[in-house]
Amino acid sequence: MVARALRDAGFEVIYTGLHQTPEMIASAAVQEDVDAVGLSIMSGAHNALFPAVLAALKARGADDIPVFGGGIVPAEDCQRLEQAGVKRVFLPGTPLSEIIAWVDQNVTAR
Ligand code: B12
Q1: Handedness of CA 35, 96, 55, 75 (dihedral sign)
Q2: Mind listing the pLDDT tens digit for each residue in 7-47?
Q3: 3-state SS, one letter per residue, for the chain
């Protein structure tokens, strides 16, 4: 739904599908020369997976690609993830218009 909303708002979205490893995500991001990576994590593994994607991007010299996302994430973990370098984590109930406005204001062409 987030991918569709961003696409409808005019952004080019490459949706890589479910159950990707951090390495697969980082490789695709570098290969496609993206301006940002958006992750959706519903499994409770956000504290492991967000940092793993940041590390996989860094290993490819691509740590300038901003990472943001959302999912079932307790509010206290949001702050920790944002301190660890995730640009923004959106919680359930966030209006899609708020996500679109954030991307519009915070993601720029690299
Ligand atoms: C549809 C669905 C699925 C589909 C997803 C299909 C797809 N292509 O997206 C499938 C069947 C694949 C699935 C899988 C899983 N699911 Co599921 N799923 C749902 C369900 C019914 C709806 C989620 C949804 O799409 N909501 C609509 C969107 C727009 O809202 P949202 O999810 O709340 O997201 C908002 C924010 O979190 C944020 N956001 C979320 N993702 C992103 C990404 C970006 C880039 C941004 C910017 C923002 C953002 O913005 C959204 C708008 O407000 C929920 C129950 C529910 N009603 O929420 C369970 C639910 C999320 N699933 C759950 C679980 C456990 C799983 C699995 C772990 C199951 C498993 N064992 O494999 C996997 C995890 C998959 C993953 N990659 O994380 C649990 C999570 C429980 C928890 N962690 O506390 C839920 C809450 C069901 C439940 N009550 O148990 N699921």
Answers
A1: positive
A2: 999 999 999 999 999 999 999 999 999 999 999 999 999 99
A3: CHHHHHHHCCCCCCCCCCCCCHHHHHHHHHHCCCCCEEEEECCCCHHHHHHHHHHHHHHCCCCCCCEEEEECCCHHHHHHHHHCCCCEEECCCCCHHHHHHHHHHHCCCC
For the whole prediction, is pTM greater than 0.70?
yes
Q: Which residue has 């679109």 as its token pair?
A: 100
Pocket of ligand 1 (CB under 6 A): 1-2, 18, 38-44, 68-72, 90-94, 96, 99
Question: Among 7, 14, 42, 106, which is best to mutate for testing ligand 1, by the most ligand atoms less than 8 A from CB?
Answer: 42
Please give the distance, rounded to the nearest whole angstrom, from the Cα atom of residue 93 to the centre of ligand 1.
12
